[in-house]
Amino acid sequence: LPYQELLARLLRAQWQANQEAALAWRIERARLPEQWTVESFPFKRQPGVNQRQIRTFAELEFVPKAENIVFIGPPGVGKTGLASGLLLKALQNGHRGMFVRAQDLFDEMYASLADRSTRRLLNRLAKVDVLVIDEMGYLNLRPEQTNIFFKLMEERYRRHPTIITTNLDYADWGTFLGNKALVDALLSRLRHQCHT
To answer: Which of 21, 56, 88, 196 has the most other CB atoms within 10 Å of its CB?
Structure first.
């Protein structure tokens, strides 16, 4: 092979290896429970899911626009699979993301009060390009946890999108989170640029 072509092939191979390693690192850091994909979602078994809308989300226009997505429905309809599939698509396109179960998130928020690491936790979560919070609504929260969650959503507002899966309609969030005035403010921010 001519020297220039050999060099181009080597550089292409190195670039490809770097891209694959970077993607593997982003997926590992995101803590996806499984690598569900939008393409493998069983739309035929879930007629209540709008396939066209989900495929539009998979084009990732919601990421630069910082538009939130909230999946509301009973257990077993595929909310977690859809949220994970969208997060994986974002990771494959170079975005940083994180998947966290709501229980783990609120436990971590409460623990951060004890060692005064709340600010570090908020900084880490607020800067993630796409944050998935799974299974909101199965918890009993303390007021401190609600306050930290509000602060997190406030810091992500109009900067980065958040995908939330929940079994609760918006009207029930006041019961779950406790403080009605704070919940109203939270929902105002969450739903301002949001697809439900």
So the answer is: 88
Q: What radius of gyration, in Å, describes the C-alpha atoms of the chain? A: 19
pLDDT (tens digit, 9 = 90+) per residue, 136-166?
987 778 899 999 999 999 999 999 999 999 9
* Sheet bearing 68-72, strands edge to edge: 97-101, 130-136, 162-166, 68-72, 194-195
- What percent helix, strand, coil does the chain show, rounded to 5? 60, 10, 30
- At 27, list the tokens: 């997926």
Q: Which residues pair with 134 in a beta bridge?
A: 101
Tens of pLDDT, residues 76-95: 899 999 999 999 999 999 99
CA distance 146 to 150: 6
Task: Find the helix or strand (DSSP H, E) in which 147 lies.
Answer: helix 143-156
Amino acid identity for residue 16 in this structure:
Q
